Amino acid sequence: MAFGDFCSPGEGMEMLQQVCSKQLPPCNLSEEDLLQNPHFSQLLLSLSQHVDESGLSLTLAKEQAQAWKEVRLHKTTWLRSEILHRVIQELLVDYYVKTQDTDLTSEDRKFHETLEQRLLVTELTRLLGPSQEREVPPLLGLEKADLLELMPPSEDFVWMRARLPLEVEEQLKKKCFTVLCYHNPSSDLDSETLKAAKVWNLAEVLAGEKQQCQAAKSQQKEQMVLLEKKSATYSQVLLRCLALLQRLLQEHRLKTQSELDRINAQYLEIKCSAMILKLRMEELKILSDTYTAEKVEVHRLIRDRLEGAIRLQEQDMEKSRQVLNTYEVLGEEFDKLVKEYTQLKQATENKRWTLQEFNKACR
């Protein structure tokens, strides 16, 4: 494919897998991005020939690898001296602990005191630094010659130096056994010979486990890259689905909403009618349970009698109304006669009551 030509979908996916998965650092690029930007695709292909997976140029990556190799060599040398120094310090600490609990032989005391004295003088000599062209005054005004006078006798130093490898070897063996038992607790019950054999292969076992961990980390990194790519792809698919759903809602919601409202209205109307009929049925049920045939017959008789009494009262009321109408025709003269009649009747009643009282008194 020439530079600047548009790539086909199959070529775009092949380019995406080749460039973004193997030769370049992880990047969230889709096939659509490469199809829409063919010049950028060619740039990635050209760039992948000059960089590694970490993004460094091949020359810089080679120099970096050489620098890391030198760093590892210096680190190994420093670790050896640091381990030896710490082992010697632990020997002296163990010596001070033993002096509190047990009685040591004169040879042990002589060995540890000579070792401590030699170690202190060596450390102080390093602190003083080089004596040539010194611009600052020496520490505490001491010179190397002053410290060298504190060195133990040469015979004692030679004797201590001959014994030191055995002591260091014994201390390192204890440490190795401790590491072995921590790595494999079942080895704690093994014999010393079997432990030594396991320690001999412990470095290879740890190296193999480290290689497995690195392989697992590399596989995890690849899985993470694949997961990120799938997440990006799924996110784009979900966004497209959401856009499609939104468009479908906008197009079909107005059409279906009116039909849905009509169906809901019909449903509510039918439900309301059913509730009214149910209430009427309950009312009739209560009435039928309350009023039996005997009660209805008694109520009918009572009603007939009440209606008859009402008719008689209406007839009496009609007669009274006719009499009143007749009296109203007579006018004021009739009113005077009524008043006079009332007065005479009241006077008669009074005289009758007085006569009754008089008759009671005579008796």
In words, what does this structure look like?
The chain is mainly α and 363 residues long. It folds into 4 domains: 59-130 and 141-189, no CATH class; 207-290; 291-328; 331-363. The protein has 10 helices and no strands. The longest helix is centred in the middle third of the chain and has 99 residues, at 192-290. The protein is elongated, with a radius of gyration of 62 Å. The termini are far apart.
Could you list some keywords that capture this structure?
single chain; 363 residues; 10 helices; 0% strand; elongated; disordered N terminus
Shape, per Cα inertia axes: elongated
Number of domains: 4
What's the tally of helices?
A: 10
User: Which H/E pattern describes the elements?
Assistant: HHHHHHHHHH
Helical fraction: over 70%
Query: How would you name the oligomeric state of the polypeptide chains in this document?
Result: single chain
> Could you name the ranges where pLDDT drops below 50 across 5 or more consecutive residues?
1-7
Structural class given helices, strands, pairing?
Answer: mainly alpha
| Strand-residue proportion | under 5%
Please give the radius of gyration in angstroms. Answer: 62 Å
Count of individual beta strands: 0
